[in-house]
Design a protein that fits this description.
alpha/beta, Rossmann fold, seven-stranded mixed β-sheet, two-stranded antiparallel ribbon, 6 helices, 9 strands, globular
Length: 238
């Protein structure tokens, strides 16, 4: 299956938090969109890998994703090396996305920035014909996405572009709350973490309002670009 947009996430729920509205909006417009999680979030303070597998499936159903995969990298210990990049290259060549979304280039969690660079490197190397990869025993054709954008996460990074998600904020929050082990749950007896408070959810909404304000939107999501954003006509920016 060829995808229009493929979002990579170091942990299950990263994509929901960072670009869930953008994902929902493009799905509603008829584009094919997928998420590939790099790890199962094994080191998370709350919940466990098996539970987060179930939660990510629930979030995928809420969105109506065309693809949801998990590469099973070791949470906290994956490295931007040849073996890990090759697994991402295989995914890029399999789904041939035109646009890739990836973790924030710099963030509170060290996995996020490392994942951002690893995905960026893989996007380049996936286009090199002399790098060989196979899927189910068959050689893959080289493929390089046309664009790579990094979503904002915990740290505020001044965006190069924002996407109006005003009509999709509700489904974004619903997908986030599919991860009931991670976020605000008054019935949970697990330890309180930086993301499990009601205040954190308010921050997510506040950040979206902040991104939306300059474009006159109620809510928006911000992205940084790995290279200049180009358009054919200036009117396409209106």
């Amino acid at each position: 299956m060829k995808l229009d947009i493929l979002a990579f996430a170091a942990h299950p729920d990263d994509a929901e938090l960072g670009c869930g509205g953008t994902i929902a909006k493009h799905l509603a417009a008829g584009y094919k969109v997928g998420i590939v999680d790099l790890t199962r979030g094994q080191l998370g303070t709350r919940g466990n890998a098996e539970l987060r597998d179930q939660e990510s499936t629930k979030a995928a159903d809420i969105f109506g994703l065309d693809v949801r995969d998990n590469l099973g990298f070791e949470d906290g210990y994956f490295r931007n090396d040849e073996d890990h990049r090759l697994e991402i290259i295989k995914v890029l060549r399999e789904y041939q996305p035109d646009i890739v979304l990836a973790n924030a280039v710099k963030d509170r969690h060290p996995d996020h920035g490392r994942a951002a660079q690893m995905v960026a490197d893989a996007c380049f190397y996936a286009g090199l014909a002399k790098i060989e990869s196979k899927l189910d025993g068959a050689s893959q054709t080289h493929w390089r996405p046309a664009a790579l954008y990094h979503y904002n996460q915990d740290y505020y990074l001044n965006p190069d572009l924002v996407v109006d998600v005003s009509d999709y904020m509700e489904i974004k929050m619903e997908a986030i709350m599919a991860y009931s082990s991670q976020f605000y749950n008054p019935d949970s007896d697990e330890p309180i973490t930086a993301i499990s408070t009601l205040e954190f959810l308010e921050m997510v909404k506040g950040r979206a309002r902040d991104f939306g304000r300059p474009i006159g939107a109620e809510f928006a999501e911000g992205f940084t670009a790995s290279r200049a954003v180009g358009v054919d006509l200036l009117t396409q920016l209106i």
